[in-house]
Amino acid sequence: MSTWIEQEGRDLKFPAYVWQAPVRVWHWVMALAMIVLWVTGYFIGSPLPSVPGEAIENYLMGYIRFAHFAAGYVFAIAFLGRVYWAIVGNKHAREIFLVPLSMLNPSWWRAFFRVVGHYVFIRPKNDWHYGHNQLAMAAMFFMYVLGSLFMIVTGFALYGEGLGMESWAFRWFSSWVLPLLGYSQAVHTWHHLCAWYLFWFTLVHLYFVIREDIVSGLTVVSSMISGWRDRKN
Ligand code: HEM
Ligand code: HEM
């Protein structure tokens, strides 16, 4: 029997250990880095009109850009660590990366439409899942994983412009990303647009984790803190 069919239904055994420590640590470190990236990125895109005092006494934009680049490194290294853990960790650590492969299995789609049926209020109760449900998995892959990869590639392409043509960032990223996307201004615009794309993903993510916590009968928010999924009654 396929794993997706096994995971449908409401007769799963709880408590179940789902999110291993590296996944949890990555989730919260990445979320904090992303908040810094949004706030500092916002000011890079829409700088303050003026700052008081002599120009030589001000380094505000410099600090903002430094914080953005430092958080950018944290975000990118955490992403690489998360990819490594998808390889060596438990099967739930792989869920958000293997979506295109999972989609080849017709039972994945059956489970997917059952979840969608619940969210559009056709099925009163959602299926239980140890890890993500199929809709969450698809959103995590197509919005979060691909979106983050795009931010890292375009971010380091912009960073390489600042470091100069001899830098590693220019050679690895700027050299092909800039011509591909239409040079500096276009890369800025795409990087900026994708920042909003990830922002909307996160708002919807928060809505769903809190909603599921309330209506599913399982622990959801606390599972990303303790690692355990359990029944609430
Ligand atoms: C989710 C992750 C990220 C978000 C939300 C984000 C957001 C932003 C935003 C909104 C801008 C302003 C774009 C504009 O309007 O010109 C920006 C610029 C920039 N970002 Fe990011 N960014 C992210 C990841 C990264 C990463 C990983 C790096 C790599 C170091 C990076 C490096 C840069 C650079 C170099 C600039 C241009 C700075 C300048 O022109 O002064 N970003 N970012
Ligand atoms: C920038 C903010 C955030 C981003 C980008 C984000 C992104 C993600 C991603 C990509 C996953 C999948 C984890 C995996 O399978 O490896 C996830 C899971 C999860 N996140 Fe977030 N997250 C953010 C903030 C939050 C916050 C503030 C909460 C708590 C209210 C939260 C609660 C959860 C929970 C509970 C899960 C597991 C869902 C489940 O059990 O099915 N996240 N998040």
Concise overview:
The chain has 233 residues and is an all-alpha fold.
Characterize the structure shown.
This protein has a two-stranded antiparallel ribbon with strand order 1-2. The model has no long low-confidence stretch (mean pLDDT 92). Helix 2 packs antiparallel against helix 3 (60-88) and helix 8 (168-181) packs across helix 9. It has ten helices and two strands, in the order αβαααααααααβ. The protein has one domain (22-229): Fumarate Reductase Cytochrome B subunit (Up-down Bundle). The chain is elongated. The protein has helices spanning 3-6, 21-45, 60-88, 91-94, 99-102, 106-119, 134-163, 168-181, 183-215, 223-226, and strands at 16-17, 228-229. By secondary structure, it is mainly α. One protoporphyrin IX containing FE binds next to helix 2, helix 7, helix 9 and helix 10.
